[in-house]
Each structure stands twice: as C-alpha cells, then as structure tokens.
Design brief:
It contains seven helices and no strands. It is an all-alpha fold and 124 residues long. It has a domain at 41-124. α1 (2-14) crosses α4, α1 (2-14) packs across α7 and α6 crosses α7 (109-121). The longest helix has 27 residues, at 40-66. The relative contact order is 0.22.
Length: 124
C-alpha cells in the first residue's frame, strides 16, 4: 500500500512526455545511493517538493492541451521545467538529490514508508 502510494506519485511526476530531462531520467540507484541514509529534513523537503512538482504539472497540463502551436507547447514545457526545478531547489534539495531519493524510494520499501509519512503530513 505504501509502496503503491510512492509509485503513484512517482508516475504522476515522471509519466509525462514533456517532463524536464532531470525529472524524466530516473535510473536505477547505484550501490552508493542505496547505502546513503536520508535525514528527516531531506525526506520532508523531498515530500514538499514532490507535491509542488505534482501541482505545477497539473497546472500546465490544460495549458499544453490548449496550446495553438508546437512553439507555444515548447515554451510552456520550458516554463514548466523551470518552475519545477525552482520548486525543488526552494525546498532545500538539488534536482539530483530529488531524483536519487525518488529512485531509491521506488526500490526500497523502508524508505518509501518513511517518505509516505511526510506525504501524509505535508500540505503545500
């Protein structure tokens, strides 16, 4: 159940074709990444950032569908990418750290459970 919550959020955040490259390329975590414990502050920041990225994505979805041209769509995609990047960084973590935590949460049930607690308590 908890892992499915993380997966649902991950797919919501990453499952769009127009996602910025840093958000679209979540690979398999390395041994170094999976061994790294995350602080409560990092996980709280991750949860806040993930919810904000999801909100931004939802806000741009209708704009993209209504775009009159490919150029307008591209401009909207770039604006969304910048806004998502800024949202992550404003929460005190880098895009790389955000990706790392997300990738690890998808393969580590204990980490997913810890993050889920923050999702439940976080309102952006």
């Amino acid at each position: 159940m908890i892992r499915s919550s993380i997966l649902a959020i991950a797919f919501a955040l990453l499952g769009v074709a127009w996602a910025p490259l840093p958000f679209a390329q979540v690979g398999q975590p390395t041994a170094e990444q999976t061994a790294e414990p995350y602080s409560d502050a990092e996980l709280q920041s991750f949860a806040e950032a993930a919810l904000e990225v999801k909100r931004i994505k939802a806000g741009y979805a209708s704009k993209l569908q209504a775009a009159a041209s490919a150029e307008e769509q591209q401009n909207l995609k770039e604006a969304a990418s910048q806004e998502m990047k800024r949202a992550v960084e404003e929460r005190g973590i880098s895009v790389d750290k955000y990706q790392e935590i997300l990738a690890n949460a998808l393969t580590n049930p204990e980490l997913a459970q810890r993050i889920n607690k923050y999702f439940e308590g976080t309102r952006v």
